[in-house]
Amino acid sequence: GDGAIVDIGLDCTLQSFFRQEKITTICFDNEVYANTGGQESGMTVKGHVFKMAPKGKQWDKVPMWQIAIDSGCHYVARLTVSSPKRVETVIKKAIYVAREVGPTYVHLYTPCILEIGLNSDDGLDEMRQRDKERFAFFEYMTDAAKEVIERKKEEGLI
């Protein structure tokens, strides 16, 4: 989750990028520490109010996808889980690139519907709305990653 990857585990996450470890890191970003009753996290949007953050978050959300690029990831994507097929394609790309080139990072917005007070259907609408706003699909790849992805497409694997 976002707490383990971006907050508490940021050092380990960054070190895997810096060392060019051949792994894919997938961050499930629910923008809150939900397990502890609704505390703000580094991924919480500035100004958002939770039960345990009644005044609203004071600082900007950590731009982890940009940090991943700046730290040497060869493939980075930001998206919501509102389109399962897109998620599948992005994860395939990330894994193939990581196996052959180096670290990749996928940032998935997965709202905690309990903490933001939504039912399941409204949660899906929330993700679709975020597709148009803060979580518009974003994809970055190095030239080496592009080569791998094009080859895998030609092989029918993506």
Characterise this structure.
With 158 residues, this protein is α/β, with parallel strands linked by helices. The chain has one domain: Rossmann fold. 43% of the residues lie in helices and 14% in strands. The chain has 7 helices and 4 strands; from the N terminus they run ααβαβαβααβα. The protein has a 4-stranded mixed beta sheet. The longest helix has 17 residues, at 84-100. The two termini are 26 Å apart. The relative contact order is 0.17.
Provide a concise account of the structure shown.
The protein has 158 residues and is an alpha/beta fold. It has helices at 2-7, 10-18, 64-70, 84-100, 113-116, 120-132, 143-154; strands at residues 24-29, 75-80, 104-109, 138-141.
What is the strand tally?
4
By DSSP (H or I, 4+ residues per run), the number of helices equals: 7
Shape: globular
Strand order of the largest sheet: 1-3-2-4
- CATH domain topology: Rossmann fold
Helix/strand layout:
Blueprint: H1 2-7, H2 10-18, E1 24-29, H3 64-70, E2 75-80, H4 84-100, E3 104-109, H5 113-116, H6 120-132, E4 138-141, H7 143-154
Parallel strand pairs: 1-3, 2-3
Antiparallel strand pairs: 2-4
Helix pairs in contact: 4-7
